[in-house]
Amino acid sequence: MIAVTTFKDKPVALFGLGGSGLATARALVAGGAKVIAWDDNPDSVAKATAEGIATADLRGIDWSVQAAFVLSPGVPLTHPKPHWSVDLARAAGVEIIGDVELFVRERRALAPDCPFIAITGTNGKSTTTALIAHILRSSGRDTQLGGNIGTAILTLDPPKSERYFVVECSSYQIDLAPTLNPTAGILLNLTPDHLDRHGTMQHYADIKERLVAGSRTAVIGVDDSFCALIADRVERAGVKVRRISKRVVVADGLYAEGSRIIEAHGGATSLLVDLDGIQTLKGSHNAQNAAAAIAACLAVGVSKDEIRAGLRSFPGLKHRMQPVGRRTQVVFVNDSKATNADAAAPALSSYDRIYWIAGGLPKEGGIVSLAPLFPRIVKAYLIGEAAPAFAATLGEAVPYEISGTLEKAVAHAAADAGADTTPSAVMLSPACASFDQFKNFEVRGDAFVGHVASLDGVTMLVDLD
């Protein structure tokens, strides 16, 4: 745990006592802050109270004495309207911050030069975050991984010299981190997302820009217009910018030519690495993720040889285009995180012959947008509530069966792929939510891995939990 000492002996109001909120309250108390916490969920309040954290309805406290108001990222700050606790803090002129900001201040107080890489973007940030942490760890560096990727940032070990922090940041977290100042900040891309919480695309982009604007080195993907303009603005403001692209040649930065990552600087170019053969980094989207990871690792002093070794040994991010098993010429791929058509497209784009397991609780639009990728699909195995609608969309374009359950789909797809003389993939990329048959996409992915492991002759590429 990182005990937040920067608010020692000061009164701090906190709202939101879910997983990260409770971790934040614990960290503040451990650092000596006088915390008063609340949540709209009585069960969360009771849990905090049982741990000895002081709780009270924030509508009844003296806001004039609060040194800060710490808000959990999931609580609305601006849109669709501010939470009532935000209105109270603003009326009293109390600063509103979040857990990432508390980390930033603690780092500044304890070890301001310890390497800190922060990652954001609409798509790809979790894979990029995990890849950077893997490169650092595989090179023998003391590495802490957390943030939006699933580990609350204040549960990490405290900042110290030569300890590397790799932190995924959502737009919600950035909005609550006014002094965010990573050693290397990554902005991968921007497409419309979370507009219910940010109001407009421009406001969403402005929030994301703050992460790279405060960085010592800004690594920015320039394949969309919002990010390209941000790169120009940040550079004019005096920040060192490394542009990355999966589509175009950049003059100073890294770009992809197929699976090859090219470094450009001062008019000269050189091949950094070829991702061909690295199953966990297939596809143009992963070329962008790898380019960003490489640029950030170079910025914090990792050698090119160390980076290449880390790329080659990257096991992939669980449930995201994750190769989990192999049998002769067939690879089994867990892409359970693909809960809509747009999320399934990268995996379907990355393999030439696919035995596709799809379906679940359907999302609006179904799989119509995936039609250009249908020629890659040898056969589809449809499960869950979406099966009839997906079958209608596939029509005569793709052979299919309605398997019903994931277990049957895996067995039938594996048998068909095993009879294929051409290398192929049995892929779970559902393009649907999981809630009709599974608690969440993680449980669905784990079930897929279990079914693959039960097949005869499969060499598993992942450890079974």
Automatic annotation (TrEMBL):
<dbReference type="InterPro" id="IPR005762">
    <property type="entry name" value="MurD"/>
</dbReference>
<feature type="domain" description="Mur ligase central">
    <location>
        <begin position="119"/>
        <end position="297"/>
    </location>
</feature>
<keyword id="KW-0132">Cell division</keyword>
<feature type="binding site">
    <location>
        <begin position="121"/>
        <end position="127"/>
    </location>
    <ligand>
        <name>ATP</name>
    </ligand>
</feature>
<keyword id="KW-0436">Ligase</keyword>
<keyword id="KW-0547">Nucleotide-binding</keyword>
<keyword id="KW-0131">Cell cycle</keyword>
<dbReference type="InterPro" id="IPR018109">
    <property type="entry name" value="Folylpolyglutamate_synth_CS"/>
</dbReference>
<keyword id="KW-0573">Peptidoglycan synthesis</keyword>
<comment type="pathway">
    <text>Cell wall biogenesis; peptidoglycan biosynthesis.</text>
</comment>
<comment type="similarity">
    <text>Belongs to the MurCDEF family.</text>
</comment>
<dbReference type="GO" id="GO:0005737">
    <property type="term" value="C:cytoplasm"/>
</dbReference>
<dbReference type="GO" id="GO:0005524">
    <property type="term" value="F:ATP binding"/>
</dbReference>
<dbReference type="Pfam" id="PF08245">
    <property type="entry name" value="Mur_ligase_M"/>
</dbReference>
<dbReference type="GO" id="GO:0008360">
    <property type="term" value="P:regulation of cell shape"/>
</dbReference>
<dbReference type="GO" id="GO:0051301">
    <property type="term" value="P:cell division"/>
</dbReference>
<keyword id="KW-0067">ATP-binding</keyword>
<dbReference type="InterPro" id="IPR013221">
    <property type="entry name" value="Mur_ligase_cen"/>
</dbReference>
<dbReference type="InterPro" id="IPR036615">
    <property type="entry name" value="Mur_ligase_C_dom_sf"/>
</dbReference>
<keyword id="KW-0963">Cytoplasm</keyword>
<dbReference type="InterPro" id="IPR036565">
    <property type="entry name" value="Mur-like_cat_sf"/>
</dbReference>
<dbReference type="GO" id="GO:0004326">
    <property type="term" value="F:tetrahydrofolylpolyglutamate synthase activity"/>
</dbReference>
<keyword id="KW-0961">Cell wall biogenesis/degradation</keyword>
<keyword id="KW-0133">Cell shape</keyword>
<dbReference type="GO" id="GO:0009252">
    <property type="term" value="P:peptidoglycan biosynthetic process"/>
</dbReference>
<protein>
    <recommendedName>
        <fullName>UDP-N-acetylmuramoylalanine--D-glutamate ligase</fullName>
        <ecNumber>6.3.2.9</ecNumber>
    </recommendedName>
</protein>
<dbReference type="GO" id="GO:0071555">
    <property type="term" value="P:cell wall organization"/>
</dbReference>
<dbReference type="GO" id="GO:0008764">
    <property type="term" value="F:UDP-N-acetylmuramoylalanine-D-glutamate ligase activity"/>
</dbReference>
<comment type="function">
    <text>Cell wall formation. Catalyzes the addition of glutamate to the nucleotide precursor UDP-N-acetylmuramoyl-L-alanine (UMA).</text>
</comment>
